[in-house]
């Protein structure tokens, strides 16, 4: 597995990749990074795919510009330009939580670049919370992030995100979650991102009204016990995406690719086989 960097549209992006074959792009969720997908990247490479897990702008090892016009337009344009720079005409997108709305925006704004969509407990169908809006206030937003980075708070959030947290909320996972929202650069970038919530919301940007334009096969994977985005949002997404199928994994929370590895990979393998 290789770690790579490339300047795209003026911004430095980082990703990890492994394997050869049809391209599969993996997008992480909020306060995550490409590291969340490392085991899946290696597994996909073994299955005969070129797997690329990218750090979204403002996250992981990608650049964290304070004054970037964060939003669905910027992120989707970056992914399209990044694929062009790598010589990849089309790719399947596998996206978790926040990454799901970035993948949806890419499928709408750059349809020729997306061959398949796999949306795992996807964001995009939930109204922005007051905390999200408040998080964009410069001083208050950074203070909230500073408090949220306390290991006990990170542990509590992760425990709520898993149906059975004991085997999965490890010291390594807690540290990765803490590191994602720690440090001045991370906090400033996340505050800048929150400040532009109207540009990052699927509904407020008008992109949700265009979901019917997505005509590629779409797989929705949801944990039956997801307490972050409950099953009601899964049925909403399934209804609004015309070419979608919904798979609900029992005894699983917000991270099917971590908590239910075997069923997650089984469903994903069958869906990607036609590539």
From TrEMBL:
AB hydrolase-1 domain boundaries: 22-260
GO molecular function: hydrolase activity
SUPFAM superfamilies: alpha/beta-Hydrolases
InterPro entries noted in UniProt: AB_hydrolase_1, AB_hydrolase_fold, Epox_hydrolase-like
Top-level taxon of origin: Bacteria
Keywords linked to the UniProt accession: Hydrolase
Protein name as it appears in the record: Alpha/beta hydrolase fold protein
Lineage: Bacteria, Bacillati, Chloroflexota, Chloroflexia, Chloroflexales
